[in-house]
Amino acid sequence: MDTNTAIILAIAVVVVGVAILSVVFVKREKTRKLKTKFGPEYDRLAGETDSTRRAEAELGQREKRVATYQIRPLTPEECERFSTAWHSVQERFVDSPQSALADADLLVNQAMRARGYPMSDFDQQAADLSVDHPRVVEDYRFAHDIAVRDKRGQANTEDLRRAMQHYRSLFEDLLSQPVMAYGGTNRYGK
Question: Does residue 84 share a domain with residue 61?
């Protein structure tokens, strides 16, 4: 092999190596951003699909879908109205836990609708909610699961109490958190 061929081969190896490292770096950075943004939801979905690639593709699709929605923060008046309604639901829990839980579920759905989330089946709602509220979407799933079990007569009062706590975490987040865009700033530039 002559010197020119060796130099060309060495340059080609370096270029291929740099290209591979660049692809690996970009992939790792994408994964890091998604893990940071979605937190436990990233881990849940990766475990559920048994593939980080499929999980990341799903999370990317969620972001694109939710970006088309007209999600907005609630007005102070809406926040006050929802807060008052929530306090009423909590007060009724002592005397009528099943009814209060059903009302809590309804109130959370009303708050989501007021913020601009389309109301479809529960799994789609939870997936959409995970984009802007990734830290509390598991609360939503947990509370909803108990509400479903309660309708079948399979939940006790302690389960209902825990469901109310999970609904409260989600509800407070819906009322107080601005809409987040990818990268951690809200969609309104704040």
Answer: no
Taking a C-beta distance cutoff of 8 angstroms, is the pair 107, 171 a contact? yes
Burial of 140 (0-12, 13-18, 19+ CB in 10 A): buried
The larger pLDDT score, comparing residue 111 to residue 189, is at 111
Q: Which CA distances in Å does 75 have to 66, 86, 176, 177, 185?
A: 20, 16, 10, 12, 19
Q: Which of 41, 53, 72 is nearest to 134 (CA)?
A: 41
pLDDT band at 177 (very low <50, low <70, confident <90, very high): low
> In the predicted model, is pLDDT for residue 185 greater than 70?
no
**186 found inside a domain:** no
- Specify whether 89 is located in the same domain as 170: yes
The C-alpha angle with vertex 165 and arms to 161 and 166, in degrees rounded to 5, equals: 120
22-80 pLDDT tens trace: 877 777 887 788 888 888 888 888 888 888 889 999 999 999 999 999 999 999 999 99
Per-chain mean pLDDT for the chain: 87
Sign, CA dihedral 29-30-31-35, equals positive
